Amino acid sequence: MEKIIKIMPCLDMKNGRVVKGVHFVDIKDAGDPVINADFYQKEGADELAMLDIAATLENRKTRLEWVKEVSSVINIPLTVGGGISSLEDIELVLNSGASKVSMNSAAVKNPQLIKEAEKKFGQKIIVIAIDAHRNKKMPSGFELVISGGTKPVGKDAVEWAKQCEDLGAGIILPTSMDGDGTLQGYDIDFTKSISSSVKLPVIASGGAGKLEHFYDGAVKGGAEILLAASVFHFRTFSIYQVKKYLQEKGLKIIL
């Protein structure tokens, strides 16, 4: 059966505002999260992501009031990430209105958390975000990086994706730091190396700047969900434009 390709705008959050950076730094303001969330749902977003980009670095939890405010204006699935490091954190985020949680650094430090979360909340809610950069010393050529892109951990990113699948993850969200915010296109090599190694849905992330980048993410990268931030926040394209383009290129889309 042909997969339905979904579009997922991403709200990167800092100090209560949506922000957007390049290579995880050089942060610019991109508006109010509630206004953006409402706008994206009306535009036809299939899902929404909200990532508290500074939570792990600032050693604090995701701010639950942001989750409550955003989830109150949408009824599409909301994936929330940033500083989620225990079953209690997951419960609080889900109770605040999230449909899924995204974990990164905490899962790398304590892989059993994935297993415990799957047992308690079910596989469908667990998104594992995998940030990586190119490193020829790794078998796949991609090294896992944690703490908001600041700490390489000496582990192969693709091997880690496979391990996450075995532990009970439901979705993999790979982001290549080499491509993040550059508008040069998703890192297809990285996305494909993950999607071809796991049976789970993969979210393409980091770098979408042109309509064809979305098509490449799905067709060449093997992603089922296409995440983007800058092109939506700064209104380069509407979600409808992206979906219409993909549909015209023969992909299965819900308009």
Q: What string gives the helices and strands in order?
A: EEEHEHEHEHHEEEHEHEHEHH
**What Rg is obtained from the alpha carbons, in whole angstroms?**
16 Å
Q: Look at the structure and name the CATH superfamily.
A: Aldolase class I
Mean pLDDT score: 92
Number of β-strand runs: 12
Which structural category fits the helices and strands?
alpha/beta
CATH class: Alpha Beta
Instruction: Count structural domains.
Output: 1
The CATH topology annotation reads as: TIM Barrel
Q: Which second-level CATH architecture applies?
A: Alpha-Beta Barrel
Envelope shape: globular
Q: Report the total helices.
A: 10
Biggest sheet descriptor: 12 strands, mixed
How far apart, in Å, are the first and last alpha carbons?
19 Å
Which consecutive residue ranges, at least 5 long each, have pLDDT under 50?
none
Strand fraction band?
Answer: 25-35%
Helix content: 25-40%
Structure description:
The chain is an alpha/beta fold and 255 residues long. It has one domain: Aldolase class I (TIM Barrel), CATH 3.20.20. The protein is built from ten helices and twelve strands. Strands 1, 2, 3, 4, 5, 6, 7, 8, 9, 10, 11 and 12 form a twelve-stranded mixed beta sheet that branches. The protein is globular, with a radius of gyration of 16 Å. 51% of the residues are buried. The model has no long low-confidence stretch (mean pLDDT 92).
